[in-house]
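A further point concerns the way the authors explain their paired sequence and structure data. Each protein is reduced to its one-letter sequence and a matching series of backbone shape codes. An entry of this sort, consisting of the sequence and the corresponding backbone structure tokens, reads as follows:
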Amino acid sequence: MLIEYFKPSFSLNKIIKTYYLIEGDFGNRTQDTFYADGCIEIVFNLDVQFYRKNVKEEWAKVIGQIVKPLEVEAKGKGKSFGIWFYPQGFSMLSGIPANELTEVAIPLDKIFDRYFVDFVGELLMNNKIIYLIRALNNFFEGILDNKKLNFKDIVAQQAIIKSYSSENWNLDELASDLNISNRYLQKIFLEKVGLRPKQYQRILRFQRALSQINMNSKNSLTLTAYDINYYDQSHFIREFKGFTGLVPSKFNSDNHHINRLFLIS
């Protein structure tokens, strides 16, 4: 199973984290578990079927924020193409409150025109990936050109940019800088990101821990907890288990045939 990443255009690089293409054989049954990463995705699957709680998902879908461990099953040999948005990116482009998508997958044609969905499918089927990337860049840039960003969009984007640039970003300071109340900032964050700010901060820290364990599995839990700014080892273990259902010492990316492709350091 192989994955390839493609950068978005410059004007989209604060909205879309990456495009990606996975090609492989999932066989008759490949099970895996996905964890919270703070982002929303659009995914197109060709000749591969994905199931969530034994229910087959649409081939083109929007996957909202994941909070609890999400067990999935994949079948078939084919390809999956994804658009991995920054936390605020999907809501900014679609205008849909992100909290309405949390923990669910929505058929894409309920949000974007069916022509757009079929157009992407046709390009994937004919393996015109570079052309597809250009077309998607043009499509999303067109939305931005015709959309006047509102105050909530701007606030959410500034909050997310700050969260990626500083591990210890402070909600009170950000609210003060924006001249709004902490309560209103939290309301905007939930609507535009799909998570509450403190929940999002916990996910960011968990993802840093997950990446560090994946790269340095021999590190002690105490050292990892210290590096990621958990209070102590027991706090780290409790948080990690809350997001994965596993204690850190039992986590092994080799057991995650699909999810390990997304463990980007």
